[in-house]
Amino acid sequence: MSIVVRDVREHELDSVLALNNAAGPGILPIDAARLRRFFDTAEYFRVAEHDGNLAGVLMAFGSDSAHDSANFRWFRERHGDFLYIDRIVVASRRRGGGVGRALYADVQGYAEARYPELACEVFLQEGSDPALLFHGSFGFHEIGQNLQTDGTRACMLMKPMCSHNWIRETYGDKLPDVPWVARPRTLRTAHRPTGTSL
C-alpha cells in the first residue's frame, strides 16, 4: 500500500493523457500533442504509483521557461523566480489517500533547492473548496485572481520556499549529489541557466 513518486516514462504518456482528461472540470483537458510538449519541456514531470498502478501526475515549469499557459504568464508578469505547477491530477479512486500530498511534498523538495516560490492556481467554480483547502493546508496563499477566457476565475496561489535562501547561501551552485535533490529526467540533458548544476 505504498506510494512511490518517480519520473514519468515515455510509454506512460497515453495513460497520463487518459488520467488528465478524466479528471473533471478542475483540470483543463489536453491533447496528445500538448502532452508531448509537456514531456519534452517540463522541468518537473513526475508520476505517483500506488501498488504499482498510476495514481497521479504533477507537471511544473520554471519561471524562465517558454511555457505558453495564460496563468503561467500572469505569474511571470508579477514575479521573478518561481516554479509553476501547471497541473496535478489524482485518479478518482485514489483521491483522499495521500497521493496529492506525496506529489506536493516531492515537488516542494525539488523547488526548495532551486526557487524562492512555488506557484499554482485553482479554478473558482462549484466544488473548488476541497482544492482550495488542500492548497491552504499546504501553505499556499492567494495573491490575486485571473479571469479565464471562458469567464471562470482562477485563484492565483503562491507559497514561499522557506529554506531556499539558506540552501542557496550554503551550497550555491553545488547541491549535494543525493537522490532526493537530483534533477528530474527532463533536466538531466536540458540547460537551466540559474545555477542548478549537480
UniProtKB/TrEMBL annotation:
Source organism, top-level taxon: Bacteria
Pfam families on file: Acetyltransf_1 (PF00583)
Domain N-acetyltransferase: 3-162
InterPro entries the UniProt entry points to: Acyl_CoA_acyltransferase (IPR016181), GNAT_dom (IPR000182), UCP028520 (IPR016890)
GO molecular function: acyltransferase activity, transferring groups other than amino-acyl groups
Protein name in the entry: N-acetyltransferase domain-containing protein
